[in-house]
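Hi V.,

You were right to ask for the full record rather than a summary. Here it is.
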Amino acid sequence: MTTGVLYIVSTPIGNLEDITLRALRVLKEVDLIACEDTRLTANLLNHYSIKKPLISYFEPAWRSGRYDKDKQGKILVDKLLAGSSIALVSNAGTPLISDPGYELVNLCVGHNIPVRVIPGASAAVSALALSGLPTDKFIFEGFLPKKPSKRRKRLQEIASETRTIVIYESPYRILKTLAEVNNIFGERRIVLAREMTKFYEEIIRGSIEEVVKNIGAKKIKGEITLVIQGK
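Predicted structure:
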């Protein structure tokens, strides 16, 4: 029996037009779509009139009570071994980038199940491209640790990094993170990209102090990508 294929499918990070023709075709052809949040993925599929069964793969433990990602991965692998083709998507952007999922890919590799990637939008790469900072060499840190002591330790570890640094941050912690970056890194050029590709997209460039002053007392909302000049 021929096994199915696991497709890693990139989805828009905001603007629903930012999806490839190939991604739409694959989403229409697979037997099942594994997703982070079935409601958000359903919104995307409904926009393009795609009807496919959905299964949650990244559902948090607090929502399901007994959720076990490894167990869920084995369920998906069994379906693939039985011949079903599955598309893996995240809430936005390219799956596995600052998201869980490598465990599933690793399981597929171990079972000789073909894995294909359908490239597309990525907030990290998009923010880097428009930053105006060097793009030839960079590091991607994803989200910094939530615990203050661990976050400061990680910032201290990358303070001497000469490559451009890309970080994801929550709007609730951005001012605190900027203060810590300023304290540990010293003067740097940074770019704060908020709500990329969406209606309220905002790009703020300058020194750390200038960006903080620009933000002022207004309440920051939405997804944030922070691009920091290397040392």
